[in-house]
Design brief:
Number of helices: 2
Structural class: alpha+beta
Radius of gyration: 15 Å
Largest sheet: 5 strands, antiparallel
Shape: globular
Helix content: 10-25%
Strand content: 35-45%
Number of strands: 9
Order of helices and strands: HEEEEEEEHEE
Mean pLDDT: 74
């Protein structure tokens, strides 16, 4: 139960902060790609094997870790009607692995959102990628 409460708190914080380099205007999304020394851009898409709906929401947060163990959180930048989740951010150059994905379900109130939310630990899977300086 405590894990689900922390999940909701972290997702609420992420939603409030927004994603650096991403500007939303209505239904359009523009992304920034100016070069930054020592950093590159990541664009990941996660498509559910099952249709997304109220009982099977798409992933809203993706957490990755670099080789030193530092973790970074990426928020879904696609619209609510999108079938898959789209994650975009700028990260320091290096090798990364996807460690977990999370979502908070819909519902009026925290209790229903916690019950409908989901969390998946992906550390046992080998979902790796490399970020190159100045590249996408």
């Amino acid at each position: 139960m405590l894990q689900r409460i922390l999940l909701v708190a972290s997702l609420a914080t992420l939603c409030a902060c927004g994603t650096p380099g991403v500007q939303r205007s209505g239904s359009s999304v523009s992304i920034e790609q100016k070069p930054v020394a020592g950093e590159g851009y990541v664009l990941l898409r996660m498509q559910s094997a099952r249709p997304t709906n109220v009982f099977n929401p798409k992933w809203q947060m993706l957490r990755v870790a670099d080789e030193s163990g530092r973790s970074f959180e990426l928020s879904d930048i696609s619209g609510p009607q999108s079938a898959g989740a789209l994650f975009y951010t700028r990260l320091p150059a290096g090798a990364y692995r996807v460690t977990e994905v999370q979502t908070v379900g819909p519902g009026p109130g925290l209790l229903l959102a916690l019950l409908a939310g989901d969390y998946q630990d992906l550390r046992s899977r080998e979902l790796r990628f490399v970020v190159r300086e100045g590249a996408l």
